[in-house]
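Technical annex, item 7. During the second reporting period the consortium partners agreed on a shared format for inverse folding records so that results from different sites could be compared directly. Each record opens with the tokenized structure and is followed by the designed sequence. A conforming record, contributed by the partner at site C, is shown below for reference.
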């Protein structure tokens, strides 16, 4: 058990983690905002928390999060218990994210499937960004959502539903993360996402001619010039015309590219991971005098 056996999940620590998904009202804006992006500003992602039972006779403090399945309300920043009796084979708490298809498909049609995965990833990125202040950390890879929890959530066949274990931050040491990364890289269970930067305007210096492409190499923290241009299947996405105005005014474009096959479950995992990476980039860009807009 990642919480040292019988130790419970505290309400204040999980609250600090989930606060990254809370709605906030800014005095200068008429509508509430969130700390992460969302296609169409529909915010179709719902968050749930599963807490396994600690067993009969286990001491219970009022600050312990009750066992069962809970819905996280971003409006009130509260957990709403959906069921106290939903035991499954998962001994570790889970944060479950669901991108509701019905909330985005009317706006985007066939693009909804991919955008749902990205929206889920933006929320995942917000959660990961909140980890240092909460003392908790999500597992490095998504885990399947148990069927009993899927039924209680009421997810539909088109909804994107993924879960991550909730662990004490100290449990995920750098050597453990490195070992997990190596295992995933060799097993092929999670396709690697590659990042490319394309120069769009002459105002950008140091990246060659307009249209040139550079690949980011994380091991060297460097951009490496690519002799070949990115294929049109990457640069001209289904939403290219919708976002043409934003793209035409941009200095550079950043592309996240994966070698995923056509399997839908893998596609969802890749889209979510890409969304989490994009959130990280968007959150850190202002500190470098840059502004990023997901298109």
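Designed sequence (site C submission):
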């Amino acid at each position: 058990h990642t919480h040292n056996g019988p130790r419970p999940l505290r309400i204040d620590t999980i609250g600090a983690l989930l606060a990254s998904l809370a709605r906030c009202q800014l005095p200068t804006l008429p509508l509430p905002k969130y700390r992460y992006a969302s296609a169409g500003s529909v915010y179709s992602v719902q968050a749930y928390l599963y807490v396994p039972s600690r067993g009969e006779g286990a001491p219970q403090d009022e600050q312990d999060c009750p066992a069962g399945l809970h819905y996280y309300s971003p409006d009130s920043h509260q957990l709403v218990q959906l069921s106290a009796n939903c035991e499954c084979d998962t001994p570790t708490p889970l944060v479950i994210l669901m991108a509701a298809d019905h909330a985005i498909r009317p706006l985007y049609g066939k693009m909804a499937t991919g955008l749902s995965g990205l929206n889920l990833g933006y929320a995942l990125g917000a959660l990961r960004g909140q980890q240092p202040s909460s003392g908790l950390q999500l597992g490095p890879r998504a885990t399947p959502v148990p069927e009993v929890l899927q039924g209680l959530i009421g997810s539909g066949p088109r909804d994107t539903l993924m879960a991550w274990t909730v662990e004490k931050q100290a449990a995920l040491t750098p050597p453990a993360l490195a070992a997990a990364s190596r295992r995933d890289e060799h097993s092929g269970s999670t396709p690697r996402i590659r990042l490319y930067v394309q120069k769009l305007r002459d105002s950008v210096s140091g990246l060659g001619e307009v249209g040139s492409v550079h690949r980011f190499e994380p091991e060297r923290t460097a951009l490496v010039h690519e002799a070949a241009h990115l294929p049109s299947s990457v640069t001209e996405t289904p939403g290219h015309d919708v976002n043409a105005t934003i793209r035409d005014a941009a200095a550079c474009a950043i592309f996240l590219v994966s070698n995923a096959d056509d399997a839908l479950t893998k596609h969802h995992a890749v889209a979510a991971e890409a969304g989490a990476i994009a959130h990280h980039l968007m959150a850190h860009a202002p500190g470098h005098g840059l502004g990023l807009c997901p298109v």
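The helical segments are 11-18, 105-108, 112-134, 147-153, 174-187, 232-235, 244-248, 264-284. The first strand starts at residue 45 and ends at 51. All partners now use this format for quarterly exchanges.
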